[in-house]
Amino acid sequence: MGQISFMSLIELHNITKIYRVGSQKVVALKNLSLVFERGDFAVLAGPSGSGKTTALNMIGGLDRPTSGQVLVNDLDLGKANLKRLADFRLHNIGFIFQSYNLIPVLTAAENAEFTLMLQKTPRHQRRERVLSLFADLGISGLEDRLPKDLSGGQQQRVAIARAIAANPRVILADEPTANLDSNTAEDLLSLMRQLNNSHGTTFVFSSHDDKVIRRAKRIIRLEDGLMVSDNSQNL
Ligand SMILES: Nc1ncnc2c1ncn2[C@@H]1O[C@H](COP(=O)(O)OP(=O)(O)O)[C@@H](O)[C@H]1O
Ligand SMILES: [Mg+2]
After folding, report:
1. Which residues form the domain of 141?
2. What pLDDT, in 10s, does the model give residues 135-156?
3. Is 47 among the domain residues?
4. What global pTM score does this model have?
């Protein structure tokens, strides 16, 4: 643990995160040290409040630790200014949130193209990519619908298309199956594994659901902000 490997993509060194709420202090992560390698398919497992979301936010550069160091692809996130962080996220990380976070006034295709647009990919290339992703994800024909006219599972697929459109090195998914029925959740896990296998995309996701947790190649358990185990399994 904490060892630097030449394959390492994400390194958390002694991360502590303390939230201050008024005069109260909440210690969300305590001395967390973790290394993720390229191609990892890892779950942060633990009950509500154990620090999963906080850990994902640190890795994605959405929030900074109170102390400790986060390195992703050799960038020290603690030393990067906000513009550099935004640029880092845009070019390296795909985010999948529990609540999908689709933009309500944009169509499914426009939502999925969003990252590519920020990256200034030409329009016809964006369209082509989105059409092929929608086909892969089984949502062809829904390109022009607004999020409100899609089911939960369909919205989640659009959110996945958005997350993977630009082929990010890392996909961070915070409880991606929490709002899905068990069949759709199964499909999503299979799709994530397929991307992991075919593109070598690194996945770090969180869950408190045993059915989801056991589909990960690596299971990192958190309790009260402490890592209590880190086990790899052959699937
Ligand atoms: N923005 C915040 N302000 C204050 N406390 C927070 C904030 N976010 C999370 N916490 C607290 O930090 C701890 C870890 O939360 P979180 O990372 O959201 O856990 P999980 O995702 O495993 O449910 C919890 O005690 C939670 O209440
Ligand atoms: Mg959470």
Report:
1. 39-59+81-232
2. 988 899 999 999 999 998 899 8
3. yes
4. 0.90
Give residue 211's identity as a one-letter amino acid code.
K
pLDDT band (50, 70, 90) for residue 53: very high
* Nearest CA, atom 1, ligand 1: 19
Identify the three-state secondary structure at position 10. Answer: strand
Ligand number nearest CA of 16 is 1
Give, as one character, the DSSP assignment of residue 35: E
Our separate counts of H helices and E strands in the chain read 8, 10
Taking the C-alpha atoms of residue 156 and residue 178, their distance in angstroms, rounded to an integer, is 11
- Ligand 1 pocket, 51 CB below 6 A? yes
Residues 67, 68, 70, 75: is their CA dihedral positive or negative?
A: positive
Does pLDDT of 199 surpass 90?
no
User: CB count, 10 Å around CB of 88?
Assistant: 17
CB atoms within 10 A of CB 2: 10
What CATH number should be reported for the domain holding residue 157? 3.40.50.300
Q: Which two tokens stand for residue 12?
A: 């958390």
Ligand 2 midpoint to CA 51 (Å) = 7
Q: How many domains does the chain have?
A: 1
Smallest CA-to-CA distance from 118 within 141, 94, 148, 100 is with 94
CA distances for 157 relative to 100, 105, 175, angstroms: 9, 17, 14
User: Reduced to 3 DSSP states, what percent helix, strand and coil does the chain have, rounded to the nearest 5?
Assistant: 35, 30, 35
